Amino acid sequence: MIPEKLTLHNFMSYQSPDSLDFSSFNIACLAGENGVGKSSLLEAISWALWGKSRAGADDDLVNQNANEMWVDFVFRIDKNLYKVLRKRKKGKRGHSELYLYSYHRKTSGYHSLSQDTIASTQNKIEELIRTPYRIFTNSAYLRQGKADEFFTKTAAERKEILSEILDLELYENLSKKAREKAKSAKTQSESVKIQIEELKLELSKEDEIRNQYHKIKNTIRQVSDKLLIQEKKLKNLQLKISQKDSFDQKKANLQNTLDEIVIKGKKLRIEKQQSDDEINEIQRLIKNEKKILIGFDNLKRLEKQDQELNDKQIKVLELNKKTAVLEAAKDKIEKQIGRITQISKCPTCLRSLPKNEAKIIISSLKKEIDQDVLLKLNKIHQLIKKINYNSLEHQRIKNQIEELQIFQDQRNLLDRNKAVLLEKIKLAEKYTAEIKILKTEYLVKNQELKNIDKEIKQLLPYQIQFEKQKSESENLQNQMSSEKENLGMIIQQQNQIANFKKKMVGKKDELKKTYTDAEIYLELAEHFSKKGLQARILENAIPEIENQANQILEKLTQGAMQISLVTQRLKKAQKPDQNLIETLDIQIKDSLGLRKYEMFSGGEAFRVNFALRIALSKFLAQKVGAKLQFLAIDEGFGTQDDRGKTQLVEAINSISRDFEKIIVITHIQELKDSFGTRIDVTKDENGSQIKMVY
Ligand SMILES: Nc1ncnc2c1ncn2[C@@H]1O[C@H](COP(=O)(O)OP(=O)(O)OP(=O)(O)O)[C@@H](O)[C@H]1O
Ligand SMILES: [Mg+2]
Fold first, then answer.
1. Mean pLDDT for the chain?
2. Does the predicted TM-score (pTM) go above 0.85?
3. Ligand 1 pocket test: which of 9, 12, 683 has the largest number of ligand atoms within 8 Å of its C-beta?
4. Separation of 81 CA from ligand 2 center, angstroms?
5. Ligand 1 interacting residues, C-beta cut-off 6 A
6. Ligand nearest to C-alpha 88
7. What is the DSSP string of 373-410?
């Protein structure tokens, strides 16, 4: 960490002073009278970076005229610029703020690196500067009146601080990690051992599994043989059953045929019966032929008579009609005669008719009746008489015809059937023959049916046998599939055994590896332990620090004083494996020899402290990865006489190249120009002020 710029606001005695710019100098002297605010500037830096200072509480740092303050501190690590801004508002509801930024050259601006909480932002800052506050105050920052801080610590604390400066914690952590890894490798090896034992247990079943496998295979073979035999048997039985089936089919067909024969027979018998009936009827007719023929002849004769009578009847009717006409003419003339006798006028021309004339007319009319009408009537009567038509007779004949009409039908029937009788007789014979054939056929088929029944009866036991064999076969198949299932399981177990064997090889390798790992990690733990690498680093560093300190001390005392650092001391109550105590003792000697620290004067003690602190700081600044290349010495001259002061100034100037920045604080007027740059600090009514004097 190299300071670049410090800006304060209401920090202790400061209100709003100019910023302190570190960039222009390597070594500077902060000069000013007592109480002007010199130490406050270093307190501001440590408060900004670690939040720690000489004050018990942050609120004590806030300028008494104000309620809040902040410190803005810009610093460099390697080539990167960072800025910390820490704020504090005091009071009951006071609170703190902390921000971290990094400077980006590309954008010429600060980017926030602040975290969610103050604690995590603080961690981030300490990760960057990699120097804890304790190290800062025990090495590079020689606080006013606390220059002996390192010296007055206990030997064990000193050892701890030195270890921190040397980053021994890193190795301690590595040692711890290696020990943990060794432990986990050991735990792992224990668990692998258990796994190996478990695998062994599984593998011990291998022989039994193999035996079971062979046993099942054997059973499968036997069942398979049995199944083959069974299958043959079933095939034969199947043949018999199919024979029976075909017989059953035949039987059904025969039964159908027989049923058909019976139906056909019945039909034929009915038809034959009808034919017989018809023949009988015809024969009965033929038997009555004579009677029918006589009846028929009589009928024909009567019909002829009827016909003649019909003709006569028509003629008589016609004559009767004529008679009626003549009677009517006669009536008419008679009526005329009657009228003429009663009247005097001509009934036709209405002229007066004389009696004689009337007589003449009447006589002509009478004549007309006699000669014309009566004559005709007479002739007609004679004709009717001659025709001699008798209606009763006619009716009697008609009645007879009706009675004899049946002979007409019988005659027709006779004529018709006489012709077909032969055919009918032939048909009847055909029916008889057919019935006979059917009967024979029926008998034959029935016999066949009986024969088939016999066959079926003989084949019936095979069906039962087949069912029995089939169920046996099914049992065997069930046994087979269960054995196959068992075989599958056994094969699975065998595969598992093969897997276990593979696993076993892997586990043995793993065990070997965990053993080796445990050994390696144990070795590493030892290597990085306090007794190992850490001790060696200390052994190497201590003479160097001692040497550095003695070089400075030589300049300050002209070789009169020397220190030596002792790291290990035998413990009084020895334990077999813990016979060394980790300490850092400092021995001081001068020309008189070794003396206790307290026995040296204030001025002498300061020189020793100064030399040792510079040596530690130089070591810290040179250390690989060290980030603190800054030295601050606050009031170191107070205890020194004039010569001492000169020697101290020289000593400080001589180490200026070992640090990027050195700040020397003094209130002694004659020393203010002893270093490269002078910064005057004053205080007035506006608080403390900073002024750079080149
Ligand atoms: N909260 C505060 N508000 C205002 N002034 C304060 C506050 N705390 C301390 N002071 C004063 O600030 C002044 C500066 O103190 P500082 O320790 O920086 O002095 P100095 O310059 O180092 O003096 P010296 O030469 O005596 O060491 C002192 O007068 C001190 O009493
Ligand atoms: Mg001071």
1. 90
2. no
3. 12
4. 29
5. 12-13, 32, 34-40, 60, 62-64, 144, 635, 667
6. 1
7. IIHHHHHHHHHHHHH---HHHHHHHHHHHHHHHHHHHH
Edge-first strand order for the sheet with 141-142 is 141-142, 630-634, 661-666, 27-31, 677-684, 687-693
Distance of alpha carbon 638 from alpha carbon 145, whole angstroms: 10
> Distances in Å between the alpha carbon of 446 and those of 264, 268, 441, 453, 578?
15, 19, 8, 10, 124
Atom of ligand 1 nearest to the CA of 61: 1
Task: Report the distance separating Cα 690 and Cα 30, nearest Å.
Answer: 9
Nearest atom, ligand 1, residue 41 CA: 18
Would you state the pLDDT for residue 356? 82
d(CA 593, ligand 1 centre) in Å: 42
User: Separation of 35 CA from ligand 2 center, angstroms?
Assistant: 7
Task: Look at the alpha carbons of 70, 72, 77, 82 in this order and tell me if their dihedral is positive or negative.
Answer: positive
Percent of the chain clearing pLDDT 70 (strictly above): 96
Residue 652 burial by Cβ neighbours in a 10 Å radius (0-12, 13-18, 19+): buried
Q: Atom 30 of ligand 1 has which residue's CA nearest to it?
A: 35
Cα–Cα dist 665/532, whole Å:
42
Maximal CA-CA distance, the chain: 243
Q: If you measure from the C-alpha of residue 44 to the centroid of ligand 2, how many angstroms do you get, rounded to a whole number?
A: 13
**pLDDT: which is higher, 15 or 555:** 15
Q: Report the range of poorest mean pLDDT among 11-15, 162-166, 497-501, 620-624.
A: 620-624
Structure tokens at 337: 């005669």
Taking CA atoms only, the protein residue closest to ligand 1 atom 29 is 35
Q: How confident is the model at residue 528 (pLDDT cuts 50, 70, 90)?
A: very high
Tokens linked to 347: 């009934």
Between β-strands 630-634 and 68-77, what pairing exists: parallel, antiparallel or unpaired?
Answer: unpaired
Closest atom, ligand 1, to C-alpha of 40: 18
Which residue type does 314 have?
I
Does the pLDDT of residue 569 top 60, yes or no?
no
The model's pLDDT over 183-233, given as tens digits with 9 standing for 90+, comes to 999 999 999 999 999 999 999 999 999 999 999 999 999 999 999 999 999
Dump strand ranges (E) for 40-161: 68-77, 80-89, 95-104, 109-112, 141-142
**Mean pLDDT for the stretch of residues 344-370:** 77
The tens digit of pLDDT for each residue in 99-123 reads 999 999 999 999 999 999 999 999 9
Residue 406 — φ and ψ, nearest 5°?
A: -55, -35
The domain limits of the chain are: 1-130+627-642+663-694, 289-449
Residue 140 Cα to ligand 1 middle (Å): 22
pLDDT (0 to 100) of residue 107: 94
Count Cβ atoms below 10 Å from residue 99 Cβ, excluding itself.
18
| CA of 36 relative to ligand 1 center, distance in Å | 6
Q: Which residues of 313-340 are buried (b: 16+ CB within 10 A; e: fewer)?
A: beebeebeeebeebeebbeebeebbeeb
In whole angstroms, give the CA distance from residue 222 to residue 219: 5
> What's the pLDDT score for residue 579?
45
* CATH superfamily of the domain spanning 1-130+627-642+663-694: P-loop containing nucleotide triphosphate hydrolases (3.40.50.300)
Instruction: With CA atoms as reference, report the closest residue to 53 among 40, 34, 65.
Output: 40
Which ligand is nearest the CA of 11, by number?
A: 1
Identify residue 627 by its one-letter amino acid code. Answer: K
